[in-house]
Amino acid sequence: MQNANTVFNKMSGLKLAGVSVLTVAVMGLTGCQSLKSNKLFGGKNEIKAEKAEKSEQAYYQEAKANFDKGNYSKAIANLNDLRTFYPVGDYSEQALLDLMYGYFQHGDYQDAVASAEKFIQLYPTNPQVSYAYYVRGVANMQTASNGIMKYTKLNPAHRDVGYYRLAFSNFQELITKYPNSPYAPDSALRMRYLYNQFAENEMEVARWYIKRKAYLASANRAKWVFQYYPQSLAVPEAIATLAYSYDKLGMSDTATQYKQLLKINYPNLLANNGLVRLENTRTANDWLNKATLGLLGKSTDNVVVNQATTSDIATKPQIVQSMQSVANLRLAPEENTEAKTDDNESLLRKPKNLNIGLDLPQDEQH
């Protein structure tokens, strides 16, 4: 007796007017049907057609009801069924928009990102496509603080910031392509928040080097902040770190020049005896709490943040700047190998084409 695979192979090889029998069988599926894999003969697979149990509208209304109840897993299942059985129906585009929201609320952030990217690819002219760009950024941002991080008070900036970098690029693309989008203001806020987080990430490494008394490494890391995050709130700490590090290295002339910068711009970071007060420099953490950022809503809500936070955010002097200036923010290269090494000799060499900004004093030769 021939097994199922043998029969299947023979059917696939038969031709009918130049078209395989298997192709004809598949083309014969019409209406609201879907192909699904099922087990046959102790583990072998067969292709079985399933019909939709509800109308397209019924699937969407059920999903909407589950959203209202907070049953996100059921709503996701409803929307996936809708898109499976009615891939080009009247609700298919809106269903994908709602899927992003459902995945996000369910904590499936990377599924939300995948749904957003699929929407951007399939429906680039949809009036709500900027929502997909926004969800992609928010979901990547949330991924960075997911897992054990959300149960602790640890600052995500003190860990891997790879997803933060993705989110920053997502928001930047949104603002560049859709500056008038209702999601652009909150995206700008998030970009500013992330920008300061990146600078904080660099300074956390500098602090670690200081604890190890690797002062040349801490100085180079602080210079990195000047080069790539000159608009961040970590700049005062970076200057103080440079002054402190060069003092410890015995490079008094260079240290004095940085202390002069502190005296002019941030006098509170210098003690009466002229020593740097590093303990008072960590201002970046106080900039904007993540809780004040926008709340993700459904695409049909046409709002990004709730009314309570909108007025509060608008009054914060830290974020009063144009969309264009936020979109022009740039990040450091992903691989800063020289600044991350413990080898002091390699730290003496600046990366190629690196010009330290803000007219920093030249290091002493020793």
Can you give keywords for this protein?
two-stranded antiparallel sheet, 54% helix, 16 helices, 366 residues, 4 strands, elongated, mainly alpha
Architecture overview:
The protein has helices at residues 4-13, 21-27, 56-69, 72-85, 92-106, 109-122, 129-144, 162-177, 184-211, 215-228, 235-248, 252-265, 307-314, 323-327, 337-340, 344-347; strands spanning 15-16, 19-20, 33-40, 44-51. 54% of the residues lie in helices and 5% in strands. The strands form two sheets. Strands 1-2 form a two-stranded antiparallel ribbon. It has a two-stranded antiparallel ribbon with strand order 3-4. The chain is mostly helical. It is built from 16 helices and four strands.
Helix proportion range: 40-55%
Unreliable stretches: 7-31, 37-43, 302-320, 336-361
Pairing-aware structural class of the strands and helices?
Answer: mainly alpha
- Kindly state the mean pLDDT as a whole number? 73
The total strand number stands at 4
Question: Which word captures the global form?
Answer: elongated
Please state the CA-atom Rg, rounded to the nearest Å: 28 Å
Strand content: 5-15%
- Biggest sheet, in brief? 2 strands, antiparallel
Write the H/E string, N to C.
HEEHEEHHHHHHHHHHHHHH
How far is it from the N-terminal to the C-terminal residue, by CA? 88 Å
Number of helices: 16
- Widest sheet: strand order? 1-2
